[in-house]
Amino acid sequence: PPELSILNNCSPSQLEGLCSFLQLSTCPEPVLVRFCRWLLALSPDLSYSSAATLAQQLFLRRVLSLAQPPSRHLMAALTSFCSKYSHPLCRVLVAAVLQEPGEGAEQTKLMCELVEECLEPHSVQLLLSQILEVPLSEKLLPVLQAVLVRQVREVLPAELLDLLVLTLCQQAPAFATSLSFAQLVTAVLTVYQSQV
């Protein structure tokens, strides 16, 4: 709809107010899918800050409150948004999930799915750098594994690989009995044998 062009003229705080007024954070998921598809057709593209604000308003509450696998509508909306705005989505959503205490099994699965299916290569690298900024936990190990599987097709920058290896070495004692950690180390040694 032509009315959506207003999104390009809003400051982040105005956009937040508009999202709140339209109740986008709680709108039904089929409406969310339609709204995200409209965003793809928007010209010019949203600025980074506007896309980050929308990512926060549209998805953050929904993702953090997941207690069961995301619906196909939520996945469709995320995939759609990710196809054009993966960097801001990654910056907002992943940071919040990483800071969330507790196991967060559904959030972990969702992050793995985003890595495997949706994120662009540079966003996968951003996600990896975000993960390496926080202490590793069991819930993050499957996400790191998904990143490595995805990175087999891409070249991992040397500084990120160095940081990954250093992090794994430093935190190894805390995961002495973790099968997931052992699998992760094996994957790193297999994929990056010459560099390691």
Would you summarize the structure shown here?
Helices cover 67% and strands 0% of the residues. It is an all-alpha fold and 196 residues long.
What topology emerges from the helices and strands here?
Blueprint: H1 12-22, H2 29-41, H3 48-64, H4 72-99, H5 105-118, H6 121-131, H7 141-151, H8 158-171, H9 179-191
Description:
With 196 residues, the protein is mainly alpha-helical. The chain has helices at residues 12-22, 29-41, 48-64, 72-99, 105-118, 121-131, 141-151, 158-171, 179-191. It has nine helices and no strands. It starts with 11 loop residues before the first helix and ends in a 5-residue tail after the last helix. InterPro entries: FANCE, Fanconi_anaemia_gr_E_prot_C. Residues 1-195 form the Fanconi Anaemia group E protein C-terminal domain. This is FANCE protein.
